[in-house]
């Protein structure tokens, strides 16, 4: 969990390098923080050590992020969240992370292999237009 600050820094660097809109960057950061926290907390029971690998790539109109782990099998795309509370008095802490990821990511895909879980997040993000240059011809 102490490495989550490194994750936040990495996401900020990606935003700067790839000219990501602030809203997209916020969605990426929120989803990654939530999912990696869940893997750390629930994917490695009894303090078992494990590995989480995060990859980023950019296509013309979208951003893709892969989170791979060798933890306990878990498919968040098949998870059925509990009903939302009807009042603040009924609301407890936790249990909203996957709902947030489904809301902020445009697509979420899961695969399980012998190596572990692979979750791919897709965010629509058109590349910014190239800056226009003034024509110096007369």
Describe the structure.
With 138 residues, the protein is α+β, with helices and mostly antiparallel strands. It has a single domain, classed as Heat Shock Protein 90 (2-Layer Sandwich). Helix content is 31%, strand content 23%. The chain has 3 helices and 4 strands, in the order H-H-E-E-H-E-E. It has a 4-stranded antiparallel β-sheet with strand order 1-2-4-3, with helices on one face. Helix 1 packs antiparallel against helix 2 and helix 2 packs antiparallel against helix 3. 14% of the residues are buried. The model has no long low-confidence stretch (mean pLDDT 85).
| Helical content (DSSP H or I, runs of 4+) | 25-40%
Principal-axis shape: globular
Number of domains: 1
Largest sheet, if any? 4 strands, antiparallel
Straight-line distance between termini: 61 Å
| CATH domain fold name | Heat Shock Protein 90
Beta-strand portion reads 15-25%
The assigned structural class equals: alpha+beta
Number of beta strands? 4
In the CATH classification, which architecture applies?
2-Layer Sandwich
Q: Strand order of the main beta sheet, please?
A: 1-2-4-3
- Kindly report the average pLDDT value: 85
Name the CATH superfamily classification. Answer: Histidine kinase-like ATPase, C-terminal domain
CATH class: Alpha Beta
H and E string:
HHEEHEE
Spans of at least 5 consecutive residues with low confidence: none
The rounded Rg comes to 18 Å
Number of helices: 3
What secondary-structure arrangement, pairings included, does this model have?
Blueprint (H helix, E strand, L loop, with lengths): L3 H14 L4 H21 L9 E8 L2 E8 L27 H8 L2 E7 L2 E9 L14
Antiparallel strand pairs: 1-2, 2-4, 3-4
Helix pairs in contact: 1-2, 2-3
């Amino acid at each position: 969990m102490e490495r989550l600050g490194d994750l936040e820094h990495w996401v900020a660097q990606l935003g700067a390098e790839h000219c990501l809109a602030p809203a997209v960057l916020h969605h990426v950061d929120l989803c990654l923080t939530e999912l990696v926290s869940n893997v750390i907390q629930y994917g490695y029971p009894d303090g078992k050590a494990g590995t989480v690998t995060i990859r980023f790539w950019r296509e013309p109109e979208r951003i893709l992020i892969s989170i791979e782990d060798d933890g306990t099998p878990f498919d968040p795309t098949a998870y059925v969240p509990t009903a939302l509370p009807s009042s603040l008095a009924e609301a407890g802490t936790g249990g909203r992370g996957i709902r947030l990821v489904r809301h902020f990511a445009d697509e979420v895909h899961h695969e399980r292999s012998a190596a572990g879980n692979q979750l791919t997040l897709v965010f629509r993000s058109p590349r910014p237009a190239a800056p226009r240059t003034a024509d110096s011809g007369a």
